[in-house]
C-alpha cells in the first residue's frame, strides 16, 4: 500500500472515530479530537490533489471535496454537530474511501 493511500485511510479512520463521538453526543471530546482531525484532513486533501496532478486518470472531483468540507464547516459554525457528522459520514468519508480504492 502506498504512503498516500495509507494516509487517506488513516484520516478516514480518525474522522469515523470523531463522528462516532458526535453521534454519542460527547461534544466536548469530539470537538477536541476534531481540532487534530482537521489538520489531518488538510494533509489528506493536499495528498489527493498532488496525486491527481501526478496521475491524470485519478477520478478526483475537487469541487465535491471542497463543497463537502464547506458544508461541514457551516454545520460546525452553526453548532449542528449531528449534521456535520452526517456530512462527514455519508459524503466525505465514503468519497475518500472510493478515492483510496483507486490509488495504487
Average pLDDT figure:
95
How many separate domains make up the residues?
Answer: 1
Percent strand equals: under 5%
Q: Which term fits the overall shape?
A: globular
Our Rg estimate from Cα atoms comes to 14 Å
N-end to C-end Cα span: 7 Å
Describe this structure in words.
By secondary structure, the protein is mainly α. It has one domain. Helices cover 84% and strands 0% of the residues. The longest helix is centred in the middle third of the chain and has 28 residues. The mean pLDDT is 95.
Fold blueprint:
Elements: H1 3-23, H2 27-54, H3 62-77, H4 81-102
Helix pairs in contact: 1-2, 1-4, 3-4
How would you summarize what this structure contains?
The protein has 104 residues and is mostly helical. It has one domain (3-102). The protein has four helices and no strands.
Name the descriptors.
mainly alpha; 104 residues; globular; 4 helices
Amino acid at each position: 500500500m502506498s504512503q498516500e493511500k495509507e494516509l487517506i485511510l488513516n484520516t478516514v479512520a480518525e474522522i469515523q472515530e470523531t463522528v462516532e463521538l458526535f453521534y454519542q453526543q460527547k461534544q466536548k471530546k469530539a470537538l477536541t479530537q476534531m481540532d487534530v482531525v482537521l489538520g489531518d484532513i488538510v494533509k489528506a486533501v493536499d495528498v489527493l490533489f498532488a496525486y491527481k496532478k501526478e496521475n491524470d486518470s485519478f477520478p478526483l472531483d475537487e469541487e465535491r471535496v471542497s463543497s463537502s468540507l464547506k458544508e461541514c464547516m457551516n454545520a460546525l459554525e452553526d453548532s449542528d454537530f449531528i449534521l456535520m457528522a452526517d456530512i462527514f459520514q455519508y459524503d466525505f468519508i465514503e468519497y475518500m474511501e472510493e478515492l483510496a480504492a483507486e490509488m495504487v
